[in-house]
Design brief:
single chain; mainly alpha; 6 helices; extended
Length: 121
């Protein structure tokens, strides 16, 4: 793979994909970006969460900061970046629901409670 990438024209590689910078509360920008791992059986043999058991044997860098994802949220819910406009709770819930759709309502409720400190019954 490395040899192939070294031979590939960077301009052609960059232009091979398209990215839509549009987003909404129901279809967030992050869904338009191909940030997910590609399980190819060679370079990445399995889902990353299944590979952490041997992470001590592999050098890697991992981390987060308190503003991870803010740029995406600002596209999906523009009022987040406008201090004079309130962001309706329903807008935030719709965005969270789209991020956690594979986990259903429990995923939404858990994420909302973590983000806001509000626990829903």
């Amino acid at each position: 793979m490395a040899a192939c990438l070294k031979m590939t024209d960077p301009m052609r590689l960059t232009l091979a994909g398209t990215v839509s910078l549009a987003g909404s509360r129901d279809y967030p920008l992050m869904d338009n970006l191909v940030l997910s791992p590609v399980i190819d059986g060679d370079f990445l043999p399995d889902e990353p969460y299944n590979l952490f058991h041997n992470a001590a044997d592999i050098d890697y860098i991992a981390g987060v900061n308190d503003m991870d994802g803010h740029i995406f949220t600002g596209v999906d819910v523009p009022s987040v970046n406008t201090p004079l406009v309130d962001t309706p709770v329903e807008d935030v819930k719709r965005l969270l629901a789209s991020y956690t759709k594979d986990k259903g309502k429990p995923g939404l409720y858990n994420t909302h409670s973590i983000e806001t400190g509000f626990h829903q019954n």
